[in-house]
C-alpha cells in the first residue's frame, strides 16, 4: 500500500487506578511503531480516582501504514463487520472511529473490543462522508 487513506491517526487508552500503566502502554504500543512517543495526561474520575490518559497522534505515512498493518491481523469476520459498519463508523467530518481490545493488545493481538480508541482523519477530496467511506473501504479490503 503506497498511499494511506488518513491524514493522521489518533490512538488513546485510559489507565484506571486499578491498572498498571506499563501494561496499558504496552497494549497501546502493540499498534504503534517503537519510536513513537506516547503522551501521558492525568485526569480525575467522577469519584476522585486517578485516570491516566495515554495517547499518540501518528501523522507520518510510515507510522499510519504500521497501524494499518496491525489492523490487517484482525479476524476476517471482524474486517467484514467493519466493512458493513462504515456508514456508522465515519462521521460527517470524515473521521473514522474504531475501538480495539486493550486486553488482547496487551497479549500482542489486535481484536475489536473496548479499551483502545482509534480515530483516523480520512483523506478524501472532496471531503464528504461518502468519499471517506469509499477510501476506508478500499484500504480495509486491501489489508
UniProtKB/TrEMBL annotation:
Gene3D superfamilies: 3.30.1440.10. It comes from the Archaea. Signal peptide: none annotated. It holds the Pfam family RNA_binding. InterPro entries: PAB1135-like (IPR002739), Ribosomal_uL5_dom_sf (IPR022803). This is RNA-binding protein.
